Amino acid sequence: MAHNAQGQVSEARSRLLETATRLFYAEGIHSVGIDRIVAEAKVTRATLYRHFPGKEDLVVAYLQAVHQADRAQIGEALGSGQPAADILRAIARSIAGGIQSAAFRGCAFLNAVAEYPDPEHPVHKTVLAHREWFLKTVTDLLAQVGETPPELAARHFVMLRDGAMAEGCLSDPVEVCDTFLQGVDGILRHRTGSTSSRS
């Protein structure tokens, strides 16, 4: 990460990353060229290449920034002191809120991996690292809910999330989120042996 003489992150780098994030998420990665990013960020190509040696470096930085935003958001829930089941519900509600936002264009990571299918590509590896972190976070929380091994339930949670992210671009996002939240609640009720639904 490039810093200026005061030790702060370079303003040009921040502007490039903000521009790339907006364009990559809204329009796709391959469809957005370097020239457009440079023009909209109001920097020179030389400035871009000083901070990001190639486009894939910028793509990886974009995904890492989204990852950090997700970590910060989930970190708030983890730091709330609530029981694990309530933290998982809060995470699910946060996901649902994103799906219902006006700017929602699907999952940034699923979108990216569709454009970079090679498992050895740095972008693909960045997506997998994010997903491993998210799965581990959910698994650790579910281990605190009920007494059976949490791995299957965690994968179920992630698959529900993935489905909601995809369907949220195709169907009524309110209905999609209602289905997703009911599914998460079902996972939690199954683990605790409860049969009553929770609103």
Automatic annotation (TrEMBL):
InterPro entries in the record: Homeodomain-like_sf, HTH-type_TetR-like_transc_reg, HTH_TetR, Tet_transcr_reg_TetR-rel_C_sf
Source lineage: Bacteria, Bacillati, Actinomycetota, Actinomycetes, Streptosporangiales
Domain HTH tetR-type: from-to ranges: 10-70
The keyword Lyase is assigned to this record: no
Keywords recorded for this protein, A-Z: DNA-binding
GO molecular function, one term: DNA-binding transcription factor activity
Source superkingdom: Bacteria
DNA-binding stretch(es), residue numbering of this chain: 33-52
UniProt-recorded name of the protein: TetR family transcriptional regulator
